[in-house]
Design a protein that fits this description.
This protein has about 150 residues and is mainly β. Helix content is about 10%, strand content about 45%. The strands form 2 sheets. A 6-stranded mixed β-sheet has the order 9-1-2-12-11-10. Strands 3, 4, 5, 6, 7 and 8 form a 6-stranded mixed β-sheet that branches. The longest helix has 11 residues.
């Protein structure tokens, strides 16, 4: 029997996603309601701006807009999920967060051409969940913003 794996489950424009707690990018315990950010000129629309969180300034990204789902509304259910990889940290704006759930079944059939940021699919209570590769997501965001690749070290 496969061990049940914990993941943070959330929705983005009607799609259910998850981030593994022990994935390549660490989930930070800063899940919070959306708060207005300070805009940054000259960045893509999906880069909402900067926010002061837990003593540091974090980049905030509209995950749905970045993934091509279009802009979403912001309401009482909207949340920010924070992940980090090495020195890079980002806040992801999602429509709703269901919290930590244990995956019933985890299949490593991710990274499809239409969803290149997936590492796997899983089920939670019979519902399909797309598992994002947090490390690849951060690296892709950094590259899109012109930052040096997080995997390159000089």
């Amino acid at each position: 029997m496969q061990e049940r794996v914990p993941a943070l489950i959330f929705t983005v424009r009607g799609h259910t996603y998850g981030l593994l707690q022990d994935g390549g990018a660490a989930l930070l315990p800063w899940l919070q309601r959306y708060t207005t950010v300070s805009p940054v000129p000259g960045v893509p629309d999906w880069m909402l701006g900067l926010l002061h969180v837990q003593g540091s300034v974090q980049a905030i990204v509209d995950l749905g807009l970045f993934m091509g789902y279009g802009e979403g509304g912001r309401d009482a259910q909207t949340r920010l999920i924070f992940i980090e990889r090495e020195e890079l940290c980002v806040g992801l704006l999602v429509d709703e967060a269901a919290g930590i759930r244990y995956l019933d079944r985890l299949g490593h059939d991710g990274d499809t051409p239409d969803q290149p940021l997936l590492s796997a699919t899983a089920t939670v209570n019979g519902e399909t969940v797309r598992i994002l590769d947090g490390a690849l997501l951060i690296d892709t965001l950094a590259a899109a913003l012109g930052a040096r690749d997080a995997t390159e070290r000089t």
